[in-house]
Design a protein that fits this description.
Strand content: under 5%
Shape: elongated
Largest sheet: none
Radius of gyration: 12 Å
Helix content: 55-70%
Structural class: mainly alpha
Protein name: TetR/AcrR family transcriptional regulator
Number of helices: 2
Number of strands: 0
Distance between the termini: 15 Å
Order of helices and strands: HH
Organism: Mycobacteroides abscessus
Length: about 50
């Protein structure tokens, strides 16, 4: 999480939950669209959550 730099320290817990759930929902859709061939790269998750 925050200590590892995966989630920005700014924002409250509710905002972080929305960001994480939105990311997972999007990743789930892409996974379904690719028929299960490939997973989201952990580096991509870090880039998405690092936005301010």
């Amino acid at each position: 999480g925050v200590a590892n730099g995966e989630i920005p320290a700014t924002g409250d817990a509710r905002q972080k939950a929305y960001e994480i759930l939105s990311l997972l929902e999007g990743a789930s859709l892409v996974h379904w669209g690719l028929m299960g061939h490939g997973d989201i790269d952990p580096a991509a998750i870090g880039r998405i959550l690092a936005k301010n």
